Amino acid sequence: MNQEVTILIAEDDEGHAGLIRKNLARAGIVNQIRWFQDGQEVIDFLFQKGGVPHREEDKPYILLLDIRMPKLDGIEVLKQIKSDGRLQKMPVIMITTTDDPREVENCHAIGCNNYITKPVDYDSFVNCIRQLGFFLSIVQVPKINGSN
Amino acid sequence: MKQLFAGIWHSSRNKRIILTIIFAGFWISFGMANASDPDGAAVSHKAQALKTIIVDKYYPYTFMNREGKPDGFSVELAEAVARVMDMELAVWPDQWQNAVSALQAGEIDFLPMMAYSKERDRLFDFSAPHTIGFDAFFTRKDKKKIRSMDDLTGLRIIVMKNDQAHEFLKNTGNIKEDQLILIQSLPEGLRQLAAGEGDVALMPKLVGLIHIRDLSLANLAVSPLVVDEYSRPFSFAVREGNQELLEKLTQGLNIVKATGQYRDIYDKWFGGLEPAGISVRKVLIYSGIGISVFIVAGLFLLTWSVMLRRQVQARTKELKAEVLERRQAEAALRESEQKLAAVFNSMTEALVLHELVFDDTGKPVNYRIIDCNRAFESLTGISKEKAVGELATDVYGTEPPPYLEEYAEVALSGHPRAMEVFFPPMDKHFSISVASPAQTRFVTISMDITAIKQSQQIIASKNKELEQIIYVASHDLRSPLVNVDGYGRELEYGLKDLKENLAKRGTGMADTETLIQPVMTDMADALSHIRNSTRQMDALLKGLLKISRSGRTSLSFKILDMNDLVHKVADSIAFQIQKSGIDLSIGDLPACQGDEIQVTQVFANLLGNAVKFLDPDRPGVIRVSGDLRYRRCIYCVEDNGIGIQPEHREKIFDLFHRLDPLKTEGEGLGLTIVRQILSRLNGEVRVESKPGEGSRFVVVLPAANIKGKDS
Predict the structure, then answer these.
(1) Which chain B residues are Cβ-neighbours of A68 within 8 angstroms?
(2) B231-240, B339-348, B695-704: which is most confident
(3) What is the phi/psi pair of residue B696, to 5°?
(4) Claim: this prediction has a pTM higher than 0.80
(5) Cα–Cα distance between B9 and B1 in angstroms, integer?
(6) DSSP single-letter state for residue A48
(7) B496 and chain A: CB distance < 8 Å anywhere?
(8) Global ipTM
(9) Which of A128, B384, B429, B676 sits a CA distance of 20 to 30 A from B568?
(10) pLDDT per residue over B237-259, tens digit each?
């Protein structure tokens, strides 16, 4: 994957975020990773709001997004991103614990690029993250302003 | 008047009566006609003008026509008779009395038309009658008709002076002299009667009817009573002893009859309504017919009476059967009515019959209760006596009346409908069937489905709870498991690394500490995640148990003094309130029905939240207030805290939902429990909030049922 791409992880559970990081590293993904504890934080970063670090213009990002988070949940974050002209091209991968088909369908309807269920079985989880790593290594990530 | 006249002639009954009158006239005058029949001796005479007087306006007998010449049936008949007997005729009009005097004095030779009477017979000689007339009484339409002579008692009677009718009335003995109003001409008499003079007029029926028509005296009518005591066999009259002239007139009359002239004249004036002329043969035929009819009628009557008796017997039998049948039908009807009444009053549904009430523009604005059954009383608590005949707005105390629009639509269209409604004044849910038995009326059949609705609400809230538990199991409980399993696996990796590193130590390439240290750090991290996750799972499971227990605790309903209850809750957090400098005020709260422990829990949670989510940048204000709406208590817990974003308004009641787990304490169960408790207590909770300004939680609970308040 383009070394420039920054991986954003929006995940309220620190443990989950740690596991994702570790396994992305094992899969050979060495890109910069940013972790956000809730939906509001990642929205503030992407929409350049509030007194927190903001995204940089002309830089490609990819977002790994959990659903159940305090303040602003993943569905709401996904909606805001997909209805924003500049951000809608940014790949968003849902990584969440629930495999409720209605939730999966809903996310696809809003426009998520991929949907991964966190399996309780760790080997499967590792496998998923590795596949994600593979996916990330070949995907073309557009820059936020639209050019590749 | 034309119509009346036509009516008289066209009605077959009246026609029959008139024909009978005339026919009977022939019968009565038969003997007289015979007696005065001449023996046929013809006396020669020389042509000379016979002088005679006619009475004007005695249509159709004698009158002056438009040219001012004498005209009418009697005039034409006299002219015809004079002509066949080769005599001249001089005719002039005068009043009847003068005419009679003139004849008596020999100033004139004859009168063409005089009715025979015994009194007159002393003064005059009469030819055979040429026509018969009958008299009838005339009254104003607004007065009683004359049906018998007794009806005349006390009445003022108009009658032509010295006319046969006058004589008849004088001779009845029952009529006093001062009852009579004497007139000189019939039209004059009728006009007077029409103008309100007198009560009744007696005159020849035919003459009277014709005058009424011609004079358009629309307020007059002929009475059914026809005077049978006398008829008017109109004859030519000469002075007593003038045998010669009488012979001539009689002979001339016979010739006129024999030649058919009489028939022509008669038909011209009377329209061929009855047998014309009088001949012995015809009279005999008629008498024969009369006698035959009489015999036949006698036989018929005899047969008829026998048949009648039989018929009466048969009919009596029939009637008995009919009476029995009717009694049975009535009994069946009574039974059916009793059944309906029993159903009406024993059914558990309230059945009410109403009638719409409209305003001036025809718009339905209200409705009236016409009838209701006993179930109505138990269902609404309103007595039948206070409801029947009253307007819905008065009975139910609502403006507009309940469901007017829906009811009016049914009553006016006739299309029945069924609906389920919540009626706040009674705090009840009803299932109502509405039908219209007649335009502007409607019947309602209402069932109290409050209990069913409450069960449905409980089931709905239980389902929601269950759904949340499933969500928690699928998401929240899985979340720590991912960590437990994930970091357990990381420990394995760590151990594996440790083993490899320790093996490397054997080669003496590095010291033990540098080999072990990073792995140990990772392992410690993994263990802390595992411990955290197991604690998290424990908390979640405890929360689930709490919710589950809270939903199953037994409730004890009683009337709660909410002022007392809320103040106690406030006291329990007094320290916190004082410390944070919060302005807490509690208004007057109406008493409600509920479980004390559970309701205390509700207000403890709400007040706790209000304190917890105050804005640190401004002094906190919390207000608790209460109101009574129909049978529901409405309590508000208001704060000026941070408020709730619109997208969170419903989620705040969800299981384990926490606004900001890092900044605030708690397990995310408080509002879930509030909603659950209120659902079990037949209450509800909702939230209104403006982010940055504050929140307002509204709690609704059933009001304490104060006795006597319903009625």
Answers:
(1) 475-476, 479
(2) B695-704
(3) -140, 110
(4) no
(5) 12
(6) T
(7) no
(8) 0.79
(9) B676
(10) 998 888 888 888 888 888 888 88
